[in-house]
Amino acid sequence: MRHLIIDRYEGKYAICEDDEQKYFAIELSELPEGAKPGCALQITEAGELLLDIEETQRRRERILEKQRRALGGR
Q1: Can you say how many angstroms the Cα of residue 45 is from the centroid of all Cα atoms in its chain?
Q2: What is the pLDDT of residue 72?
Q3: What percent of the chain has pLDDT over 90?
Q4: What are the angstrom distances between the C-alpha of 48 and each of 3, 43, 44, 61, 65?
Q5: How many domains does the chain have?
Q6: Torsion angle of the four alpha carbons 23, 28, 33, 36, in this order, in degrees rounded to the nearest 10
Q7: What is the pLDDT at residue 73?
Q8: What is the pLDDT of residues 11-25, one digit of tens each?
Q9: Residue 28 neighbours by CB under 8 Å, 6+ apart
């Protein structure tokens, strides 16, 4: 299964990045409900986009840990 991360919104598009650091523009209307910048998406074999809540949470926790370490463990 392929994964994308929503990087940002530009107009009516979500700019998404894959594991190979390639970018894709996906219309906002095609995103699953609740998707927003920073969220992880799965692309199924059938091409359906699904919100990957677990991967989104893992990414957020890794980012928070990096921020804590950068600020001296606060």
Answers
A1: 18
A2: 83
A3: 92
A4: 11, 6, 5, 26, 32
A5: 1
A6: 50
A7: 67
A8: 999 999 999 999 999
A9: 9, 12, 13, 14
Helix (H, G, I), strand (E, B) or coil at 7: strand
Residues whose CB is less than 8 angstroms from the CB of residue 67 and which lie 6 or more positions away in sequence, other chains included: none
The CATH number given to whatever domain includes residue 46 is 2.40.50.140
State whether residue 35 is helix, strand or coil. coil
Q: Tokens 């990087």: give the residue.
A: 7
Q: Is the dihedral of CA 24, 26, 32, 37 positive or negative?
A: positive
What does pLDDT average to in each consecutive run of 10 residues of the chain (74 residues)? 93 96 96 96 94 95 93 74
Give 44's DSSP letter.
-
What are the residues whose beta carbons fall under 8 Å from the beta carbon of 19, sequence distance 6 or more?
2, 3
**Structural domain that includes position 35:** 2-70
